[in-house]
Amino acid sequence: MKLVYCIPSLDSAGGTERVLTNKVNYLAEHYGWEIHIVLTERQKGAPYFPLHPSVRIVELDLDFRADYGCGILGKSVAYVRKIRTYRRELEKLLMHLRPDITTSLLSHEIDFLHKLRDGSKKIGENHFYKDFRLGFIAMGRRSSLLRRCVAWLRNRQLIACVRRLDELVVLTEDDARAWHEVRYKTVIPNALTCFPERVSDGGAKRVVAAGRYVPQKGYDLLLRTWEKVRREFPDWELVIYGDGEARPELERYAATHGLDDVRLEHAVNDVFDRFAESSLSVLSSRFEGFGLVVIEAMACGLPVVAFDCKCGPGEIIRNGEDGLLVPAGDCEALAEGMERLMRDEGLRRRMGRAARSNVERYRMERVMKQWVALYERLLV
């Protein structure tokens, strides 16, 4: 089988990039399929996550993100010009490759993918929740009425384009329900890259979080929460792993408020080892597409205290059994959940064992069988 995936870039440590890399590596290694990944952005370096040697990269170097800081008018003019070039180049590539399936991660190509006549089946993958654009606008500093209207219109355009695809794949049942306008859709969750042998013993006085330093991840809320928690637990520490533009601001907040028991570390490749060295994980996100870091922490035997945000945590965590769900954005409730587990090592261990058992369903081989079944069904 021959597959083409379209994604802006692979040079960052984001969850979407990691999920796609793991998937194509598995398909290339275990099935021997021919896979091409089309990148639209100017890459800052090699792919952050290593790719299987047989996976081919096509860099179009259109650099849409260079226009992100422009005003709406300038950005729109540049977008129209670049999208025309993108359509021409992608159609030429697909006519040459003749893939069986072409997949969009709902980026720029979604505007025209259904119009391309290369003969491949067209799939969309949503790695956020349906209204993620409105979510980004809502937490931005320039959340004007005009920007909200543009985001709403863009969302309507996205729905119209997705409806014309052969299939939409989403990560959660919650998101599938939100896409009620789309007839052909499938739920396939993210997969664990591995099921680690090393697990937490629940004894370390360390709380861990992982993810990009961006407003979406809610680390500003987590630091505010930690100010409350640390008063009762001065011998514990909070360690966050990630990269991103919000890190300096978070470092200033921690320094200003005397949070010397907070460590803001860079992203690491051995995140499973970092989880195993901790006793509790926290998800403070304002929204997610799934919450890959949640199942990774649980696979290491960590209970997770999470905001019950859209989308994912509520479908992964069994509240009170293998972790705790608290109302989204409620720092008081998040602090109470953390404190409950921090003061009870026995409870942490029991929930940790249950968490590891729960996420067996996300093993790579199980999830990949769902992908292969989908691809084969589309080609019948």
How many DSSP-defined strands? 13
Tell me the β content.
Answer: 15-25%
Q: In CATH, what is the homologous superfamily of the largest domain? A: Glycogen Phosphorylase B
Q: The CATH topology of the largest domain, please?
A: Rossmann fold
* Alpha carbon gap, first and last residue: 13 Å
The profile of the biggest β sheet is: 7 strands, parallel
**Strand order, biggest sheet?**
3-2-1-4-5-6-7
Number of helices: 13
Q: How would the global form be characterised? A: globular
Provide the helix percentage: 40-55%
Question: Which regions are unreliable across 5 or more consecutive residues at pLDDT < 50?
Answer: none
Counted up, domains total 2
Element order: H for helix, E for strand:
EHEEHEEHHEHEEHEHEHEHEHEHHH
Q: What does this entry look like structurally?
A:
- The structure is a single chain.
- With 380 residues, this protein is of the alpha/beta class.
- The protein has two domains: 2-190 and 363-379, Glycogen Phosphorylase B (Rossmann fold, 3-Layer(aba) Sandwich), CATH 3.40.50.2000; 206-361, Glycogen Phosphorylase B (Rossmann fold).
- Helix content is 42%, strand content 15%.
- The protein is built from 13 helices and 13 strands.
- It has helices spanning 15-31, 72-97, 132-138, 145-162, 173-178, 219-232, 247-256, 271-276, 292-299, 313-316, 331-342, 345-358, 364-379; strands spanning 2-7, 34-39, 56-59, 101-104, 121-125, 167-170, 185-187, 206-210, 237-241, 262-265, 280-283, 304-307, 323-326.
- Strands 3-2-1-4-5-6-7 form a seven-stranded parallel β-sheet, with helices on both faces.
- Helix 7 links the parallel strand 9 and strand 10 (262-265).
- Helix 6 (219-232) packs across helix 11.
- The radius of gyration is 21 Å and the shape is globular.
- It starts with a strand and ends with a helix.
- The model has no long low-confidence stretch (mean pLDDT 94).
